[in-house]
Specification:
The complex is a heterodimer of chains A (162) and B (420). Chain A is an alpha+beta fold. Chain A has helices at 5-23, 45-50, 62-75; strands spanning 34-44, 57-59, 81-87, 91-96, 103-116, 121-136, 139-149, 153-155. Chain B has 420 residues and is an alpha+beta fold. Chain B has helices spanning 30-41, 174-189, 210-215, 222-225, 227-231, 265-268, 344-353, 364-380, 405-418, and strands at residues 47-51, 60-66, 69-75, 81-85, 100-102, 106-107, 114-115, 121-123, 130-132, 135-137, 155-159, 162-166, 195-205, 240-245, 252-257, 299-304, 308-313, 316-324, 330-339. The longest helix of chain B has 17 residues, at 364-380. The two termini of chain B are 21 Å apart. Classes of the chains: A alpha+beta (162), B alpha+beta (420). Chain A: It comes from Aromatoleum diolicum.
């Protein structure tokens, strides 16, 4: 199981571009990281480890991810905050389709730091991504992103994408 | 309020007989908070501890909380459910550290005192001393009796698969505690079907625990705060609805039936979120399929005072457990579930509709936020008071939602029990 450096470089870019997008407050960019039937799930580690299906968010298509963007921008009253993702180097688990890969299974640790306008910066959510990434004519996209978080006791609420 | 010269009340007293103006100090005082723990969570009331489906097999246990006291819900070898306090009888250690598991017995690692699943002390290491060079050293005094040193055992009641417990063994039966009206809404969800746990969500909300009870006794806010509800027509002030209470006004049910939509100028004027043509991009978010057991209402939110909220919002059902920690904070633990005979489609539907609820929910995230901001306001000027006067001053059941009567009811009860 190897991929060429060009593909690995694209993979690194996907992770860093995603982090930049979800930290930028430009939420409209977020759905574009997913293919049309792509899924985004944010799940507490306890449910994952007990085989319980409930997620904190289970967005089952790019359309539903867009619905979330609408909610974040237009309907959800919340304290505004900055967030900053620190994402570790992705670990490639398996690859299908040769050295330029048409499907990559990979994982990466993340920490999200939250800063409210009048407060200090605190570790808000920590966990890891379990991803399935596919090659499309527009480059690598997420077929599925499962964020499994250790921070099971959420400091009140999570509004913006992890 | 002009008559209030001080920000920090020197001799706080609740003005007048009513319960429509709640002093901010009811949410900010540590002394009152401790009294609340004693009088509501530790005596005279049943508190939620969990679901039978969480501990299906003998030896299964789950650690949970009543008020601030750590307890263990465990199924013993006879299949009965016991609830014991997680404090060792020896040196007071909170010995159970796992959140759940399966055990033949409990033991405290400090000195290995050992307890049965019923909470009885079974053994104490070196109880008879240690033999050394022909003589016995140490040991417990001869009059020490194992049966006098068990774990604190709680009174337990189960109904429809839900487990309640009380430190107070003189508490009235659960059915009387709930009262006939609330019992009817309780039994509507928990009618004997086997439950299937779907998972947990946890959030720490920096606000007084009562604010969560109030939030679910307040039908005035959903169509206004929860823009997502109103945008997509899930909650409107002209929905057919009833508000019901027990005879003490401590528990309540908000019952509503989703309207047929359409524009009603009275309801939507001034609600800037109403959008007649707004649709979600993925219709599965609102793919609501009526279930026979609803018997009409599309949502029933039941507050069982002081510890739990029972949620049926369309196809999403959950318990929401209130676990206070200090006057200005509580943990809110959501257990989402379905029923054993749910089809795979229904399970998926419940899981997708769960996006509306919980700490990131399209709707419920708002509630945690406003509770935090309310607490900030209370701390800022505790001599002030809220104005809970929508629908008047009195307390009673209602056939509409434009009222804060349930909150007034809860504070009438609170004043009586607290002597304030």
């Amino acid at each position: 199981m190897t991929i060429d450096f060009q593909t690995y470089f694209e993979l690194l870019n996907l992770y860093s571009d995603y982090a930049m997008a979800v930290d930028s407050a430009d939420w409209e960019k977020w759905p574009d990281f997913f293919v049309e039937d792509g899924t985004y799930r944010l799940q507490p580690r306890e449910n994952f480890e007990q085989g319980l299906p409930l997620c904190l968010l289970a967005l089952e298509s790019r359309a539903m991810i867009k619905d979330r963007v609408y909610g974040v921008k237009e309907t959800m009253y919340h304290d505004p905050y900055y967030q900053r993702h620190i994402v570790g180097t992705p670990r490639v688990i398996s690859v299908e389709g040769g050295r330029d890969a048409d499907t990559i299974h990979s994982e990466a640790n993340y920490v999200v730091v939250r800063t409210k306008y009048d407060g200090e910066s605190t570790v808000f959510n920590s966990g890891y991504y379990r991803d399935v990434i596919v090659r499309t004519p527009e480059g690598l996209k997420l077929q599925s992103r499962l964020c499994i978080y250790d921070t099971e006791m959420i400091p009140n609420s999570i509004i913006y994408p992890i | 309020m002009t008559g209030n010269a001080t920000v920090f009340p020197k001799d706080p007293t609740w003005e007048g007989e009513g319960s429509s103006r709640i002093p901010f100090w009811a949410y900010t005082r540590d002394d009152l908070y401790q009294q609340e723990l004693e009088r509501f969570f530790y005596s005279g009331h049943w508190c939620y501890v969990g679901l039978e489906a969480e501990i299906p097999n003998p030896g299964d246990f789950r650690r949970t909380v009543i008020g601030e006291r750590s307890v263990i819900m465990v199924r013993d070898t006879n299949g009965a459910i016991n609830v014991v306090e997680n404090v060792c009888a020896h040196r007071g250690m909170r010995f159970c550290r796992e959140r759940h598991g399966n055990r033949k017995d409990f033991f405290c690692p400090y000195h290995q005192w050992n307890y049965s699943l019923e909470g009885d002390l079974q053994g104490v290491p070196f109880r008879r001393g240690v033999k050394q060079e022909g003589k016995i050293n140490g040991g417990m005094p001869p009059e020490f009796k194992l049966e006098e040193h068990g774990l604190t055992k709680l009174k337990v009641a189960t109904r429809g698969g839900v487990v309640f417990a009380s430190f107070d063994h003189d508490v009235e039966p659960l059915e009387e505690f709930l009262g006939p009206t609330i019992l009817q809404y309780f039994d509507r969800v928990f009618n004997g079907r086997k439950l299937k746990v779907l998972g947990y969500r946890r959030q720490r909300i920096p606000g007084n625990w009562k604010l969560m009870q109030e939030n679910i006794k307040d039908p005035y806010h959903p169509g206004l705060l929860h823009t997502w509800f109103s945008t997509f027509g899930l909650w409107r002030a002209d929905n057919k609805s009833q508000l019901r209470m027990d005879e003490h006004f401590r528990h309540a049910a908000m019952i509503s039936t989703r309207g047929q939509g359409g524009k009603n100028d009275e309801v939507v004027s001034g609600v800037d979120s109403f959008k007649d043509q707004m649709k979600v991009n993925d219709p599965r978010l609102l793919d609501i399929v009526p279930e026979p057991w609803w018997n009409g209402p599309t949502a029933v939110m039941t507050t069982v005072f002081p510890s739990v909220i029972l949620q049926q919002q369309v196809n999403s059902v959950s318990t929401r457990h209130i676990q206070p920690n200090g006057h200005g904070s509580f943990d809110f633990v959501w257990t989402h579930f379905g029923f054993d005979d749910d089809s795979e489609e229904m399970t998926q539907r419940r899981l997708i509709q769960a996006n509306l609820f919980g700490p990131a929910g399209f709707v419920s995230a708002d509630d945690g936020e406003v509770i935090e901001w309310s607490q900030e306001g209370f701390e800022q000027k505790p001599a002030h008071r809220t104005v809970v006067e929508m629908g008047g001053y009195d307390i009673g059941d209602s056939e509409h939602m434009v009222t804060e009567t349930l909150i007034r009811g809860m504070y009438a009860y609170w004043r009586k029990v607290m002597g304030q």
